User: Which sequence fits this backbone?
């Protein structure tokens, strides 16, 4: 058994403080986009006065990479292509077990581009910081209103330090409300598949309300913005239904 002396412990404390300071500086230097409407977020947590609504979306979230730490609402962001400036994005956040749900519209300032954080003034921060980040789905889509059913394009989320930007991300994780054996997920450019089909999985030990499957799509290192879709083929009883989700697509 290794015995840590006082010097070891001092170094450990110093390292933890340095990491915390680095994260705070990084967040302080990253631009933040604000809620479109002033006031509190629209959000629900089971145990609050109102029940959390059941998420009925087929695709519940999409983010770069994965996460093994706990969820920090203040770390949610995305990488904005230049054409998104001046538009709005609708952001859904849902826990796998259905206990938490949020849906809010954000106004992107003209000229905003690159890595950006979302302003998330949640009143449930103390509860959410105990949720595993891997069990939280975030969906960011171009939309004039969160009531719009047809997405203008999806922007993969970054959560904490697990995210990345197009060109360096090893994978894209897509959260789908379907069993893994019934779906095939691919990254497409036009009619051509880019890379192999996604690996989809589920954890039967989890309570699965908001989504059932996580599908990890390998992303080539030379991925550039524009013209991509995520194609999801779902096997029904007598036919296959295909859903195509636009990525990084200019709404004009």
Assistant:
């Amino acid at each position: 058994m290794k015995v840590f002396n006082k010097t070891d412990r001092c170094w450990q404390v110093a390292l933890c403080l340095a990491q915390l300071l680095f994260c705070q500086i990084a967040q302080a230097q990253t631009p933040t986009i604000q809620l479109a409407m002033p006031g509190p977020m629209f959000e629900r947590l089971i145990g609050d006065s109102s029940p959390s609504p059941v998420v009925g979306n087929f695709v519940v979230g999409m983010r770069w990479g994965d996460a093994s730490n706990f969820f920090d609402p203040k770390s949610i962001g995305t990488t904005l292509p230049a054409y998104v400036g001046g538009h709005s994005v609708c952001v859904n956040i849902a826990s796998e077990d259905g206990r938490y749900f949020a849906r809010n519209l954000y106004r992107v300032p003209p000229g905003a581009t690159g890595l950006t954080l979302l302003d998330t003034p949640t009143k449930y921060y103390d509860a959410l910081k105990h949720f595993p980040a891997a069990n939280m789905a975030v969906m960011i889509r171009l939309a004039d209103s969160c009531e719009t059913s047809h997405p203008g394009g999806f922007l993969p989320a970054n959560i904490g330090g697990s995210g990345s930007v197009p060109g360096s991300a090893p994978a894209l994780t897509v959260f789908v409300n379907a069993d893994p054996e019934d779906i095939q997920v691919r990254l497409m450019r036009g009619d051509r598949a880019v890379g192999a089909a996604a690996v989809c999985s589920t954890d039967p030990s989890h309570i699965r309300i908001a989504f059932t499957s996580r599908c990890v799509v390998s992303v080539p290192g030379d991925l550039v913005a524009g013209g991509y879709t995520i194609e999801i083929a779902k096997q029904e009883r007598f036919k296959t239904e295909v859903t195509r989700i636009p990525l990084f697509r200019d709404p004009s």
In short: The helical segments are 6-29, 125-128. DSSP finds two helices and 16 strands in the chain. Confidence is low (pLDDT under 50) at residues 1-28, 161-168. The chain has one domain: 31-247.
